[in-house]
Design goal:
Oligomer: single chain
Order of helices and strands: HHEEHHHEHHEEHEEHE
Bound molecules: zinc ion
Number of strands: 8
Radius of gyration: 17 Å
Strand content: 15-25%
Largest sheet: 6 strands, mixed
């Protein structure tokens, strides 16, 4: 079936149109990346938005979220995991040795029903698998509707929009990597982390595909 689909709708690079990959190595080499940011010097917590939210990765995320091209997840997960293994092996080792658990940011059920999937679960699960990290998608629950963060420009309004939007389901892992597809102001991740920290202190990293 997949062979027939490949013949009918061949996969093409989102930038140059060359065959066989959505993100061809040549175009991907122009994609800008970010470094990890630690909470403070010597801290064991921080955030990493691996790719800049622009160019090829931005297009790939758009295809996934708004054109529902879910088969792009495999390519994104491989690119993401390979980059972490190559560029930040010590950070990865720290996560592995301390049993950090990748927890995707949940969507409210109406949005998930509209899209048919949660892109952070699809990506987070594949990425955790490739990085040899545990994954758990039933630790936090989004219990009320919030407006799409991208549509709210003001940071204060974004935080207010997400205030107490999440609740926690036990048991809670001690070391957590909160995963989302995109972080712009970090208000979604902060809100989820506040909910987790209210019930049990934990060590937390924010990890996103882009930001
Ligand atoms: Zn290309």
């Amino acid at each position: 079936m997949s062979v027939i689909l490949d013949l009918l709708f061949p996969v093409k690079c989102l930038n140059c149109g060359s065959n066989s990959q959505y993100l061809c190595p040549k175009c991907l080499s122009f994609q800008k990346t970010n470094l990890p940011k630690y909470v403070n010097k010597g801290s064991k917590e921080g955030s990493l938005s691996l790719f800049r939210y622009e160019y090829l990765i931005k297009r790939a995320i758009f295809e996934l979220k708004y054109r529902f091209v879910t088969d792009i997840v495999d390519e994104l997960a491989i690119i993401f995991a390979d980059h972490i293994k190559l560029s930040f092996p010590h950070l990865l080792q720290y996560w592995q040795n301390n049993h950090f658990v990748v927890i995707p940011i949940p969507l409210y059920y109406t949005r998930q029903n509209w899209r048919g999937f949660n892109q952070s679960i699809l990506l987070g699960q594949k990425i955790a698998q490739k990085l040899n990290l545990n994954f758990c998608d039933h630790t936090i629950f989004r219990h009320r509707h919030t407006y799409t963060q991208a549509k709210i420009k003001d940071i204060n309004s974004r935080s207010k929009n997400l205030y107490q939007a999440f609740s926690v389901i036990f048991p809670l892992p001690r070391n957590i990597i909160l995963f989302d597809d995109v972080a712009s102001s970090f208000s979604t991740l902060n809100s989820a982390h506040n909910s987790l920290n209210c019930v049990a202190p934990n060590r937390c990293w924010y990890l996103t595909l882009a930001g």
